[in-house]
Amino acid sequence: MYKRVFGIVLDSIGIGTAPDAAKYDDEGADTLGHIGEHFQGNWALPNLQKIGLGNIRSDNPILGVEPIDQPVGYYGKMTEISAGKDSLDGHWEMMGLPMMHELSTYPNGFPKALINKISAFASRPVIAKGPYSGTEVIKDYGEQAVKEGALIIYTSADPVLQIAAHEEVVPVEELYKICEYARSLVNEAPDIIGRIIARPFVGTQADNFKRTANRHDFALAPTGATDLVKLQAAGQKVIGIGKINDIFSGQGIDEGYHNESNMDGMDHVEHVLQQDFTGFAFTNLVDFDTLYGHRRDPEGMGKALMDFDRRLGSVMKALRPDDLLLITADHGNDPGFKGSDHTREQVPVLAYSPSMQQHGSLGIRESYSDFGATVLDNFKVGNQVGTSFLTALK
To answer: pTM of the full predicted structure?
Structure first.
């Protein structure tokens, strides 16, 4: 048994089209593959490659991250069975709670009655109200929002309702209260929304409006016992880093850290590495998604991955022999694909410990739930959803 398990989710870093991608109009999506093509192989992820990232795609190599002969860890990919392709779906499935029914989406905008209730509660006008890019919506409506003291409400192809407001006009705590109220309105059919997202921004005019790190996700509460809850009930410490606490509504989490950025998140990982505990530390690094994937910026996404890879080297050196590191993603967000939404892809799964004597393939996992099942198996916690790959790690 490993004393500590560290799980890191590289938000949006898919590894190629999922078998059911056609259902989502995502055929041909390939986040890592298209980043490699953008750089024409002139990029490097040596630590991820060392664990085995390139070996997952031996039949269709990622330019610049090709297979190597002797990886130091185990590698494979996982297929999502949940009905959606949002962060909530992906993380819940990882933790043993697949979402088998689709949540509400609003390609034609939100119902007038819903918007009116939010506006009345906030005593503020609402503008936008439909699908929009998060960066473009504040560019197009930010000045009006500042002038009118308004809320900008918008969505994407995912089951989310996002509320943007200028921090100097609508204080962050006020925005959070508005989002909490909106959360209370969309927990039952016909409107069941996965996440209400507060999107504060700053700036003086359209060309310099910028979203801040005060984003906060108000997620639908888990509809059943997740693996985090099971671990906690079994006496294991559970630490959430980044938006993990938001995604699981704090359930099953003993200690949480808010990330200002990917690098801030890695600071938290390294801080937790110095702690003496027995249990699971679960991290989400969201910049890949919010700063680069949705903006279709392969250059930025690739550079952010290289930054992460450099920090990964420090993490690998700090791991103890009885530590296990698991790295994966929650969905794709191909910066070389059409549109600006998440993409239905398979995701990588990598496993490494300094005590490993062998390496090899974990194959294609049938569900993200195999990730959480492995963590539960390690701590001898039963009632698993999915199939553990712990015995393959030698």
So the answer is: 0.90
